[in-house]
Design brief:
Strand content: 25-35%
Shape: globular
Number of helices: 2
Structural class: alpha+beta
Order of helices and strands: EEEEHH
């Protein structure tokens, strides 16, 4: 993103020192037992939840914070690759706008 370090974090801390976004897939966990795609930003910009997400995607703000798209939303539907890409782009664009 911006390449800036996070204020108040030790610059030598390779995991937490820089602004970052993470995108991934989880097969399910204690909080969300079904498979899902996610996109997170660090540090979390609270205003990001005002940004719109594509149909079927939501902002998750409970056990972790980020965009959430359930795998079942894509399965069997039309153009699943396009829907997934639209979700990831929406979160990336929202995060980039707030983390500059």
């Amino acid at each position: 993103l911006s390449g800036r370090t996070v204020p108040g974090v030790d610059p030598a801390d390779e995991e937490s020192a820089d602004e970052q976004m993470n995108f991934g897939f989880a097969t399910g966990d204690e909080a969300i037992p079904a498979p899902y795609f996610y996109a997170t930003a660090y540090p979390w910009p609270a205003a990001i939840t005002a940004a719109p997400l594509p149909a079927g995607a939501v902002w998750h703000t409970q056990s972790w914070k980020g965009g959430l798209l359930m795998y079942e939303t894509l399965v069997g539907g039309e153009a699943p690759e396009e829907k997934l890409l639209a979700f990831l782009r929406a979160v990336q664009e929202a995060g980039s706008a707030l983390m500059k």
